[in-house]
Amino acid sequence: MTNQRNVPASIAARLKNVAIQNKKNYDSIFLLYCQERLLYRLSISDYKSKFLLKGGLFLFSLTKFSARPTLDIDFLANYISNEIENIQKAFIDICSIEVPEDGLVFDIDDITATRIKEDADYEGVRIKIPVSLGRSRKQLQLDIGFGDIIVPKPAEIEFPILLDMKNPKILAYSIESVIAEKFEAMVSLSTVNSRMKDFYDIYILSETRNFDGRVLQEAIFETFTRRGTSFEKHHPVFTKDFYTDTERNQQWQAFLKRLGIEKSISFESVMLRLNTLLIPIYEINANENEFFKQWNSQSKQWR
């Protein structure tokens, strides 16, 4: 019994060491640990195939936590009813799975679910889950979306772990669909866009991943079509006025500071990279042609 009672203290001490070694604050490492262990419970539950990991945490995992940290977990629901009560019950069941070695206790009696409506067009469900490690507490936020198209199909990934425990093996979005959704948001929101994370995420992916142009083209075309976004020629988001705008550059610097991103990256350099990556595919789709080049993350060019 004594050992069991000491598990939370032991885990907390190990997480503090991880924070020191990686020059991160403990609070962000603790949150990431809670997110990771929720994903592990999902991976061994009957709901593994029902929720596909997407968004910031998925991108964070691809770069072994060197990319943008994330405060919430985004999922795409897969062959499961979008009724609030149904989604809430799923996560009550998932969080009821006991994993004594990780020291976490999920408060299943206080799990809440609410309807969310983002970008005026797409409804989802937001789940909030209280979790504790001894006396330390966090509240996880999960945003569940419905109905998006994934190109290519989702694949199983092994989510990286902070401590020596079993990895969550979960289904995740394709990288191409992640880029397509973020690109569509950039185009549809245009000059009123304040979502700096979308620009940053695509930039990081262009630095670290190679892409098949035909697959990325299909993902972008399907996403734009589903969301009713047209391929307007000479779009403002690709112009110099867009990336030299003073207010937008201030938003960018505030975004980097808020997330503790030490490496200074100018918004202009980010947009020039995104233009190199995305304009060729955007124009090919506008002209209803096909794109067969390969993106090389080392040369930062299509070949």
UniProtKB/TrEMBL annotation:
Pfam families linked to this entry: AbiEii
Keyword annotations of the record: Transferase
GO MF term list: transferase activity
Superkingdom assignment: Bacteria
Protein's name according to its UniProt entry: Predicted nucleotidyltransferase component of viral defense system
UniProt organism field: Ureibacillus xyleni
